[in-house]
Amino acid sequence: MTTVPYGARSSALAMLDALAKKHPVPLAAIVQLTRRCNLGCRHCFQVERAGVELATEEWKLVLRRLADAGVLFLTFTGGEPLLRRDFVELVREARALAFAIKVKTNGLLLDEAACKALAAAAVMEVHFSFYATDPALHDRVTGLAGSHAKTLAAARHMRELGVHVLLNCALQADTFDGYGAVIEFARAEGMDWSFDPGIQVQEDGCTRPADHRLAPGQLERLYADPRLSLPLALEDTGKKLRSTVCRVGEAMVAVAPNGDVWPCLSLLEPLGNLVESPLERIWVGNPRLARLARICWADLPECRGCELLGFCVRCHANALHEDGDLLGPSRLACAAARARARAAGVGPERSDDAGLAPEGESRRLPFAGGATEMAGEFTVRPRRQEEGQR
Ligand code: SF4
Ligand code: SF4
Asked: Which ligand is nearest to the CA of 327?
């Protein structure tokens, strides 16, 4: 997942990050309370919206097990987490266990009582899905008339109660021109903002959400915007080849609505279940997770010779779901890397702005090294009818 960060990391967080690398389980957990949602956003990657959900007491056991394992940061997400009737009760339980809590929501069900309960539980941050300052445009993305007004009212209410609010904006081709307005709006309201230009395909490989991705020229303008302070410089490729591709297995544990533990929120491969076992037993020494966490850039047969390697931020899950190979190139990452390189003034010429399909063959750099045998260990779900639409 490619997210444009907001603000600089504090030294305290950097220290915690260093500590996390030595800790046998991640210091952060993201808990998907439900896959149900009260919106039908056009770009959503989630396919399955039903499924088994833990009962309240089971969730409390899961939270205790996360706390016992040393998890400090807890993010509640969904679906829409407030669709759980026990949501406030679970937040209070998490607070009693001394987690630093974040909530990701669309805000539609955050009424006055829920806002006050979150503020009283000293929730650290509430992230609202927010797509545009223009209500009609926002509502077109969510598919629900009036959703903009409700989301905004809840965000303002949380802010008034002294809670840190972040507007989380999945940037799309037709909302792109308004991203500057989102920054100005957030600043005026005393809120933070974050842009995610990496619209993922659906979990089953359906490519419909990709129709809303930014065009290459838009991506390039985004990466060149000094307000976003995005890193563009070519990284030392020799050093990068020896480093891991992402922090899966290290930075954050993801928990499914049924208590299953996933490597991350995009790789939905159950490693064990937190109702049945403590986190340490599921996570520490898990051979599949260890192999995933060890994948270096040098292990990616095609990427390791790519001229854009120094500009690339690649996600195994995106490569798997969209392009069918966990170790292969990801067209989402390729497009972003090209845009970063162009924004830095060293990229290949753009052939067109029409879409995100790979622009021909990248020039390969010489490299000698051995690939891991991860391909095939994580499988793609069956593709749906949209496979051939681009
Ligand atoms: S595979 Fe890596 S980059 Fe992708 S979502 Fe998971 S942790 Fe993040
Ligand atoms: S730009 Fe594409 S091919 Fe090159 S390293 Fe990134 S994902 Fe691999």
From this structure: 2
**Cα–Cα distance for residue pair 335/345, rounded to 1 Å:** 15
Round the average pLDDT of the chain to a whole number and report it: 86
pLDDT digits (tens, 9 = 90+) for 26-38: 999 999 999 999 9
- Inter-axis angle of helices 216-224 and 331-343, nearest 10: 50
C-alpha to C-alpha distance for 299 and 229, rounded to whole angstroms: 30
Looking only at the bridges linking them, the beta strands covering 252-255 and 28-32 are: parallel
CA separation for the pair 86, 88 (Å, rounded): 6
- In the chain, the amino acid numbered 266 is S
- Centre of ligand 2 to C-alpha 80, Å, is 33
CB of 181 within 8 A of CB of 150? no
Task: Kindly write down the DSSP assignment for every residue of 174-236, as one continuous string.
Answer: TTGGGHHHHHHHHHHHT-EEEEE--PPPPTT---GGGGGSPPHHHHHHHHH-GGG----SPP-
Distance 184 CA to ligand 1 centre (A): 30
pLDDT, tens digit, 9 for 90 and up, residues 4-27: 444 444 567 677 777 777 778 899
Nearest CA to ligand 2 atom 7: 329
Stretch (H or E) spanning 98:
none
Ligand 2 in contact with 126 (CB < 6 A)?
no
Give yes or no for a contact between 281 and 71, defined as CB atoms under 8 angstroms apart: no
Distance 315 CA to ligand 1 centre (A): 5
Tokens at 232, concatenated: 């563009």
